[in-house]
């Protein structure tokens, strides 16, 4: 069952910026419907900047997550080896990329 959770901004913000639309969902944490998120985007960005992670939902299903920039994980680097690349089979039959592109361009009249 959803439990309503009211989040209040830090002391330097006015008390009028209380988000009553937020709900704590199990497994997702703090979430807010998309309509409320559109109306309170500035307030949500302030919360995210202070370290909170917020899930935006539509029809009760999670659609997006707002998270602080410094919390993002680093991109994974390619760890493949030259031997693995050489072992990839070479295309020997069927239409090749050049033929497909040429046929597409000819069909458009370029």
Q: Could you write a compact summary of the structure shown?
A:
The protein has 110 residues and is of the alpha+beta class. The chain contains four helices and five strands; from the N terminus they run βββααββαα.
Question: What would the average pLDDT be, to the nearest integer?
Answer: 79
Shape: elongated
Q: In whole angstroms, how far apart are the ends?
A: 59 Å
For the biggest sheet, the summary is: 5 strands, mixed
Q: Please, how many helices?
A: 4
Adjacency order of strands in the biggest sheet: 1-2-3-4-5
Helix content: 25-40%
Q: Specify the CATH homologous superfamily of the domain at 3-71.
A: YefM-like domain
**What's the CATH topology name of the domain at 3-71?**
YefM-like fold
Number of strands: 5
SSE string, helices as H and strands as E: EEEHHEEHH
CATH class of the domain at 3-71: Alpha Beta
Structural class by helix and strand composition: alpha+beta
State which percent range the strand residues make up: 15-25%
Rg: 24 Å
Q: What are the low-pLDDT stretches, counting only 5+ consecutive residues below 50?
A: 12-17
CATH architecture of the domain at 3-71: 3-Layer(aba) Sandwich
